[in-house]
Amino acid sequence: MQKSDFIQALPKAELHLHIEGALPWWMIQRRVTSWPSPPPWWSADYRFDNFPHFARVMSQCYESTLTSAESYYLAAQGIFENLLAQDVRYVELSYSIGHAVTRGLSQREIVEAIKQAAPPNLIVRIFCGLSRSRPELLREGVLDAVLDLPGLDGLDLHGDETAQEPAAFAPLFAQARGRGLAVKAHAGELAGPRSMRETIDVLRLRRVEHGVTAVRDEQLMAKLAAEAITLDMCPTSNVKLRVVAHASAHPIGQFHRRGIPVTVSTDNPTILGCSLSDELHLLVGVLGFSLRDVVQLQVNAFRVAAVSEPTRVGIMAELDELLAHAGA
User: Of 259, 303, 320, 317, which is closest to residue 13 (Cα–Cα)?
Assistant: First the structure.
């Protein structure tokens, strides 16, 4: 079996995906007509100047596009169609509460719209994305209602890690856990190991988005392995945002070899010009991952995925069968 055929046939999970950065390109073009197609940031050698530059580009894409519940439905529908074409079975999709509040949009309607767009053969979990850069939302009490949103599956803390310490969000995360919501947070991307360790400890996390800078701290690496903290990594995102110098320097392989459960996702694929299949090809073609390694990343993902046990067992069996068929 060819590697490309293997990657296409692989049952996949996408655990780190922002709806604002995954909008179908046609929706953006309809609102932002001044950009060329394809945009320059899709080029493999493109680098954003810094995180604020990336955030400006992304906000230009979604601020005039996600303006109603219907637009969230259309965006989710396009995103889910793209994922199904790659044989993605499970996705955790986050939406920005900051944008919803700024626009005066109903979060209940946003969650309902995304859920309604979910096809029957794709398991969709919806996360409310909180920004470290907007702690005023906590003071305004806006987030109190989030915990009671029908259909919401979890909370994700994102944004610039240097903007706000995680302690401000600890009470909310504790309430979310008490209500059965999943919790995760971005860490170890724009700040170093100390900040990542603090985020894990203060918010009591078992899931971290990114986490690449932990490679600088041997004690933190040992903690991640011992506590089996899952890192949802996005290599292309890290390269284009200058977290790592180039694709071949990405440390995901070091984490994997240490036994730290890592997964691979796309983060903001429309802004970064990548797909989940592209990320898997990068692992195999550039970073030396074997097909068995790639399967293990999917095993890691489905172990933490919010799916029924029969579904999990069935997908694990599919992964074993695919490996056997490939002779890997």
Answer: 303
d(CA 250, CA 234): 10
- CB distance 99 to 66 below 8 Å: yes
* CATH code for position 68: 3.20.20.140
- The structural domain count of the chain equals 1
pLDDT tens-digit map of 165-176: 899 899 999 999
- Distance between CA 283 and CA 21 in Å, rounded? 22
Q: What angle do CA 108, 186, 243 make, to 5 degrees?
A: 135
Are 146 and 128 spatial neighbours (Cβ–Cβ below 8 Å)? yes
Q: CB-based contacts of 222: which residues, under 8 Å, 6+ apart?
A: none
Q: Using DSSP, state whether 181 is helix, strand or coil.
A: coil
- By the 10 Å C-beta count (0-12 exposed, 13-18 middle, 19+ buried), 206 is classed as middle
* 92 is known as an active-site residue: no
The answer to whether 25 touches 62, Cβ cutoff 8 Å, is no
Residues 46 and 40: beta-carbon distance below 8 Å: yes
Catalytic pick from 189, 209, 309, 321? 189
Distance in angstroms (rounded) separating the CA atoms of residues 189 and 187: 5
- Using one digit for the tens of pLDDT, what is the confidence trace for 259-292? 999 999 999 999 999 999 999 999 999 999 999 9
| Pairwise CA distance, residues 180 & 183, whole Å | 9
Residue 112's domain comprises 3-326
